[in-house]
Amino acid sequence: MTTVNRRQVLGAGLAAGALSALPAPALRAQGKPEKLVYIGDNQGGWKRALVEEVAPAFEKETGIKVEFTLLPTDPWRARLKAELGARSSAVDVAQWSVQMAGWMAPHVLDHEEVLAKIKARDPGFDWDDFLGGSKRAASYDGKLCGIPYRITTGILHYQKALLEQAGFARAPGTFAEFLKAALAVNAPPERYAVGIMGKQGSGSYTSFASWLYSAGGQLCDFRTGEIFINQPKAVEALQFYADLMAKHRVVPPEATTWEYDEIIGGGQRDRYAMAQTFAPYGTLINDPASSKTAGRWAWDVVPGHTDREQSRTWIDGHFLSVPRYTKNADWAIEFIRMACSKEWLRRSAERANAPPRGSVLRDADLAAKLGWTPVAAQAIETGIPTPAHPAWDTLDMPLRAGVSAALLGQKTAKEALDEVASDWRRGLRRAGIGR
């Protein structure tokens, strides 16, 4: 607790100094509210710096409290849909993820204009420092909808010594190498080879997507309604992924209940030797204060299908936006400017965030401390953003069921994905896409 308080004091001083150095901003002319209302999700600890350090520093400088309403994933999305759909002025800062962009876009300011205000107040904000993948993910249909705060991507986490002892001098670069390494290091029931988020839930897509994209598979075309999810490359990807559990039994059996917290806990308890999962989870899995495997982990890009150069992963993340209906837009912009500054994003990285700034992820001192950050920067360059079209929420549900059925061995990948494709055709037609 002493460490946290000390960080809060130091952070408040840092932020106050940065704000005081700015010319008297035009926002001072806007009436000052007692508080800003922030609506976001409560999954994971990556918002600790935002909640415990940035917000108190912002309040100390401005006198405005930031009130956080943090909800589980589905209720968070439902709350924002309800508030923004009603054009409520009760939300000042909206946190959203990539797949929400399609329905969020009409309800938020044009953030090119927001960015122009930030640049005018803070010439050192440096928009060019944000990774290109983070900017693509923050945009929908040509509109910048938010300022990136967290960009997540899938990378390979692996216990280096275990692989070396099994004869693998480096991380597996192809599907075949991955399976060979998995079979070699599998040691049930104490430790299995591969950790996955096998629960039929919101983590299903990210656990499967890297295998899909690295195999050359695709989802669908939201413009034409053409469906690719049950084509051969996608089927091969899902069969490989599902076979890790159903056929080769290199996955902990309890992984069918695992999602975000569980994949972290499994790594900390030494339940697996490798996992394709969120890059910043490396901080928590490798944390000496809470992990029995601390110091054993290394990171690389996910395996390609038959060549390392085919490695492709997903990009997701969280963005901070100013709703069109807030009465406190200028103060919300100031909070976002502060939260997304180089200084605060650098600090957030040490508290489990995955900052979107290249200078932070490639920082030599941070890379030496955390390990995974330069790998994440590399993966983001070629990664594929989670679908942002509003219809994706409808399509995601049958995909979860299909992936789960294959993992449990209830259906072959072809059977599961054919059923997914059939559901998708109906869903896309209902959304007015395709025939």
From TrEMBL:
Signal peptide: none annotated. It is found in: Periplasm. Its main location: periplasm. InterPro entries: Bact_solute-bd_prot1, SBP, TAT_signal. Belongs to the bacterial solute-binding protein 1 family. This is Extracellular solute-binding protein.
